[in-house]
Structure formats: C-alpha cells, structure tokens
Amino acid sequence: MSSLNFFSQLFGGLKSAYGTYELNGARRSDGKAEGKALTKKGEVTSELFQKHLNGELSLGIVPIMEDNNCKWGCIDVDEYAGFNPLIIIKKIRELKIPLFPYRSKSGGLHIFLHIDGVIPATDMIDKLTELASRLGLADCEIFPKQRTINVKLGTIGNWLNLPYHNAKLTTRHAIDDNGHSIPIEDLEKAVKPYVIKPEEFYKIKVEEYKDEDELFAEYPPCVQNFVKNAVGEGHRNEALFNVGVCMLKKHGKDGAWEDELGDINKGWGDKAYPASELKATVIKSLSGDKNYNYKCQTDIARKYCNQGLCMKRKLGIGKNNYSFTVDSFQKINTKPPKYILTIDKKPVRLTGQQLCQQQLLKTELFDWDIVWKTMEKEAFNMWLNYLKSMQTDVEGYDFTDDDKDEFQYLFRHFLDDSQVADDITQTQSDYIYSENGSVFFRAEVFKKFLKKDGNNLKRDEVKELLIDNGAEYVRGHNGYKARLWKVPKPEQEDIKERNVKFKRELPGFDPDADQNI
Q: Model pTM greater than 0.70?
C-alpha cells in the first residue's frame, strides 16, 4: 500500500469537513507555536491528504464521523518546556497499552489509539479518559471531543492537526520507544503492531493499584496515585491535602485520620515532609470544624482526575461537588452567528443571546443534563472572555435563501393546519396564538406537524430549525408564564386565483325522454 493510501486510511474521520492551521511565527510563553485555526465545510479527499504530506497545507481531521463512530482517538499532551516524551512512552509500554506516539506541531506529543475498523466515539472517549488518568495525563485534551454530532446543524466536532505535514522535512513525526523519528515510508511497519481490532479495544484494561486496605478501591483516582507515588516539591502540599480529605472521610474527625496521613507521608521517603512540618501545614489546614472538599482544580490533582469514576466511589467527590469541563467553543459563521459550546463531551448549540444571559444559558444546559451554577457578573464576564480565547471558527454552514424559503413555505402550512387560540393560555392545549405580527406555540406542536408532514425530527433538531429561521424562545408573554416559541408571522402571499371558465353545453340526449336501459 502506498504511503498516501495507508496514511489517509489510518487517520480517516469525518468526510464532510476539515480543519486548517496557519502558523504566524509567534510562540506563547510556554513555547507553543501560535497561529490561526479554521474549520471548513467540504469533502475530505485524498488530494487534501497529499497536499498535507507535501507541505502545501496543514490538515486537521475530525475523528468523529457522521454516524458517531471513529477509527482513532488521541491524548494531546500539551507540554513543552523541559518536556521529555520518553518518560511517558516508557510508562505506556510498562502498562502494555497499545498507544502510539507522534510529535505534535507545537513540540508536544499526540498519543494515538488506532482502530482497524470503527467503534462508537463515546467508547473511545471513556477509554482514553481512563488511560489518561492512570498515565498522569488527565489534564490533557482528548479527541474525539464530542460523543455525538449532527453535521446538518453544524455540530461537526473538533479536529486535530495530523502528523507528517511536509513529510520529507517534518518535525511532526511518529517516534519509536527510544525517541527516534520514524520516516513516513516506515510508518506502516512501525504502527501496525499497535493498530487493534474493535474486539481488542474492549479488552484493554490497565492493572489497578493494589492495596491491603479494602477501602483503597473507594479512594479518588488522584488520591490512589498519591498514596502509591511520591509527589515532589511544588505540588506536595496540594497532593497531601487531598489525601488528608480522603482520610477525614474515611475515619471521621475523631478517628485516626492524622495517623494514616502521616504514614502515607512517610512512605514518600526522601520527598516526605518532616512530621512537624506536616502538622503545621496540611494537618492544621484540615483541623477546623467545617467539612472539607477535595481540591480538584490544582495542577497535580487534574493530572490524575477522573470525575466520572470519582463520583461513584464511596470516598470520592460525590455528585454535589461535580464540576463540568469546557471541551471546546466554536463559532459558526452564519448570519447571525451560532455557537457550539462542548461541555463534558456534549455539543450544545447556542445563540449569542443565550450565551450572554445566564438564565437562558442555565435553561438550555439543563436540557442537556448539565447543571449551571450561577456566577457573579464579573466572574461570568471572565468566563465569556475565556470562551472567546479558545474559540475556533467554522465556515461554510450558512443557510441559503432556498433554505429560508423552504422554511417559510413549511411554516405557512403549519399555520394553515393549526387551530388558532382566543387566548395565549390555550397554547397549552396545542393551539397557536397570534398577536401583533407574531405567532406563539409550543415546540411539541410544531414537531407533531412536521412528523405528520413526513419530517420525523428529534426535539433538538426541531429547536435548531426554529432558531436558524429567526424564532425566539420565550418564557412567557404579557404576564403569562410558559415555555413558548415566538416566530414572526409570514407575510400573506398574493396568490391569484386560477382563471377557470365554465362553458354551458346541451347534453347529447334529451333528459326528459324515456331511455331504454
């Protein structure tokens, strides 16, 4: 098989959109190269892969396909200053995990899990999340970033820059276990032992940490790691704090939590705190009357975090302390723009108004089983700035005049088919209500009409169809509280009646005469 064919099959993904990245020559303070990322609607062809290998463009592929399957996943290790990939590669091989490393465009590491076939993207995400936590890479990005997508509505997923850009002179190459680069012509031979069948994927298991303590299995993943692996200066206090919280949950305030914390600290050998210093710092900070929670957002805890697993454990964070993760933020360059906010691998499509008003955002996220905790105004504005800093643009998904005309035609039929209410309260009985040039109705009523018309759309697809065509979601009107959609009433079309002429003619028989039948 040619290098091009093998490469395009190995890194195959979504076929209807792709990404490009243009470096601008600048670097961030941490050494990462800066540039402009753009998502484009268009067929992913072998010519694009060839241009990538030739160095004519930098190609990014979305791993999740239209059917929500994928054939690869990746842990994006975003470390630069003093970064040594051999430490990670050694750990991967010791754990006997079929992962394969490539250098990234910015000098980090892309650790791929290649599949000979396809598996659901949601399974790939769960597996890589588990592996990343054990490898101390849980703070790294994981691709796919979405569990499901809907290409027709513009939720197309996030792409990853491929290796071997300008293959003959590339710095984005696969590396072997000794850190040596693998040229493109040798890639197939080098990677094939690590390309696994779907049935092999489901057999991947990392040996769990073992301990004589029966409750050890109920510790948070980060605490399990801290118990078994010493943490050096700079993060030692943060690590021992979480261990201390775990011991408090295990023994209670009047129990032997201080003693077990001290024993774990001693087990760190030359990296341990002196007993007096441990008492004056960590133990003192946990000796108040309040209930203490784990510090999940510290750098060291995030490296080993697995919130989904931690919630289920007896000594874990519990559901009340779960915090969502923002995976990506995309702007679809339609008129007006739409936004895709991916939280906990769920892509949520939003308008600018929904993003900027917390109550609207809270309602929308709640429909996706995400509970938003209201922020102070200043904190919320900082969060919006954070989203803008990570924003990537998506082009080619604007709605044409034909699309809008089709909706207007459909909506007129909906109005003709519906019963009109005398009062807005009757919208709860599946009526529509018209006032001052606007029509109010429940989404479910429109959904039923579409189904009867042969368009069996899902609830979210109905909502997106309405939003894309200027509908506004309201929580009431003139003092009446209800969740309704408000759509400008279409202008009455001036349809001329057909000019039908009737011609009177005598029949070819006498109707009064007797007929022989």
A: yes
More confident residue, 401 or 327: 327
What is the C-alpha to C-alpha distance for residues 320 and 306, in angstroms, rounded to an integer? 16
Q: Please, are residues 257 and 296 in contact by the beta-carbon 8 Å criterion? A: no
Q: Model confidence over 453-507: pLDDT tens digits?
A: 777 777 777 887 888 788 888 988 989 999 999 999 887 666 566 666 666 676 6
Sequence-separated (6 or more) residues with CB below 8 Å from residue 241: 282, 285, 286, 295
Burial group, residue 486, by CB count within 10 angstroms (0-12, 13-18, 19+): middle
> Average pLDDT over the chain, rounded to whole?
88
Q: Which domains does the chain have, with CATH numbers?
A: 3-201 (3.90.920), 227-321 (no CATH), 326-395 (no CATH), 401-488 (no CATH)
Q: Which residues contact 378 (CB under 8 A, 6 or more apart)?
A: none
- Model confidence at 392, pLDDT cuts 50, 70, 90, reads confident
pLDDT at 493: 62
CA–CA dist 110, 108 (Å, integer):
7
In one-letter notation, the amino acid at residue 514 is D
- Contact (CB, 8 A) for 320 and 435: no
Average pLDDT over residues 183-189: 95
What's the Cα-to-Cα distance from 50 to each of 7, 39, 137, 169, rounded to whole Å? 10, 19, 32, 15
Going by C-alpha positions, the residue among 501, 465, 499 that lies closest to residue 485 is 465
- Residue 354 has phi, psi (to 5 degrees) of -65, -35
Contacts of residue 408, Cβ cutoff 8 Å, sequence gap at least 6: 469, 490
Torsion angles phi and psi, residue 82, rounded to 5? 70, 15
